[in-house]
Design a protein that fits this description.
Elements lengths: L2 H22 L5 H6 L6 H12 L2 H14 L4 H25 L4 H8 L3 H33 L4 H18 L1 H32 L4 H4 L10 H11 L12 H16 L2 H4 L8 H19 L2 H16 L18 H7 L4 E3 L18 H7 L6 E3 L4 H8 L4 H39 L5 H24 L5 H25 L5 H23 L24 H17 L6 H11 L4 H6 L1
Antiparallel strand pairs: 1-2
Helix pairs in contact: 1-8, 1-9, 1-19, 3-9, 3-14, 4-15, 4-19, 4-21, 5-12, 5-14, 5-21, 6-7, 7-8, 7-19, 7-20, 7-21, 7-22, 8-9, 8-19, 8-20, 9-19, 11-15, 12-21, 12-23, 15-18, 18-19, 19-20, 21-22, 21-23, 22-23
Amino acid sequence: MDLKTLTYIVVGATFALYIGIAIWSRAATTGEFYVAGKGVNPIANGMATGADWMSAASFISMAGLIAFLGYGGSVYLMGWTGGYVLLAMLLAPYLRKYGKFTVPEFIGDRYYSSAARVVAVICLIFISFVYVAGQMRGVGIVFSRFLEVSIGTGLIVGMAIVFIYAVLGGMKGITYTQVAQYLVLITAYIVPAVFISFQLTGNPVPPLGLGSQVEGGGYLLEELNGIVTELGFAAYTEGGKSTIDILAITAALMVGTAGLPHVIVRFFTVPTVRDARSSAGWALFFIALLYLTAPAVGAMARYNLTATVQTGPVGAAEANLAYENRPEWMKRWEQTGLLKFEDKNNDGRIQYYNSDRMDDAREQQLGWAGNELTVDRDILVLANPEIARLPNWVIALVAAGGIAAALSTAAGLLLVISSSISHDLMKSTFAKGITERQELMAGRIAAAGAILIAGYLGYNPPGFVAEVVAFAFGLAASSLFPAIMMGIFSKRVNREGAIAGMLTGLFFTLGYIVYFKGIFIDPIGKNTAENWLFGISPEGIGFVGMILNFVVAMIVSRVTAAPPREIQELVDFIRSPRGAAAAIEH
């Protein structure tokens, strides 16, 4: 069976499964729509949390970043993993003990202010729409390549699927759909990694294969270092980022993870505080399965890509692959526009090297006129099974996994947006008299509107997947995370401080990102390290925004009235072990 037909069958079967689950678990009440009735099993919730959190950035883009950045790409691995631990230990149990539906609801109650709730909703919408842009781009990439349709058509299909199980099923439908999506995505990630690890090193365990010898050669990382440095690239095991930027990006991703509303809300779906802690542990286990595999996937993908193009020693006549002899996978990806060849010296061969770092005399000696192959970072994980010539069923499985990863997170984000609009803005602030049925309808309408905006952002994304997601994490780190942390652990921070801190962190971080990255464009010459504040890139500036948020909130709180006594008692209730037994039972 040809690849296209097989892909349609595999992807179609997963879509049928998702839709069937959504119909079976359709939400009938606002409690089911927002938090799945608080009746989800901890193991199932851990699996759903893993799918919700491991977005297209984790599945599609992270290993691609590691492949091209080498050691420097490890900041994404460290930041996202460490952030989940931070969320599970510091925030999730306390928020579940508080027991409300949404993050803005917690902020509104804790800071005894409708204005604080509205500001939190504004922050949440900014974060979620930036984040969802990366997911929808991932959907478009997968569809455009494997189903051989335009990105626009792929986005329409993806939007329709999300509409069915997010709008109809709400959190209840999304939770059980995400369990299925986790099983699909983790299988699709690990199976090809096992094949490729065994193929290259003889070791079927990818993390162990990363430290093994390649067949007929030296250790994989040593071989990879030798190949890429000979072509003018930085050594794979060396970082290209400054120490302060690595620190800032890692910290921004960590605290951004802990401030992501669509992940936090998952801990409201379990019956008790004890179950929230248990589901956090299970989620960490399920997430670790992919994250322990990602470094091996990135290194092996880079090795296979370079070996495909570079067929002999650099400088030898047969060194570079003749364009007319390029493999089928390159022809297929060229059709998407995400892989491009430009024959600059008209020799019919593909010169793939780092022209910026290659010595001019060496380039003249080799007769090269600049790098001729452009490979989008977001395609490497998806193309890796094709480069390694794995069976068609494995390639079709990877397509289904990439779509599952993108759609699972997109659905969670869209539900958070809809619940914030219907519950926090309408029911709790501007239209308090609406019935539960009207609130449920408003939530579904808001979700449908959010899907349309998400589709547009996926069609016109402001960057590659992991970069866009990093911006969302920075916005979460600089706006919501400090407000949640101080709301749990400080009785002195008041509404004036929280509002001032959130707005300061949000607008500073957003302004910095827009200044250096533009809105859907990259300002030429501006986004370079010498122009960055303290040498911190837009991906890491959320760390500075977070510090500003804390400082402004503390200062403003000190010069204004302390929170009322009942609010200080609320903080004691959330934090204190007293009454925990009762909370566990209810």
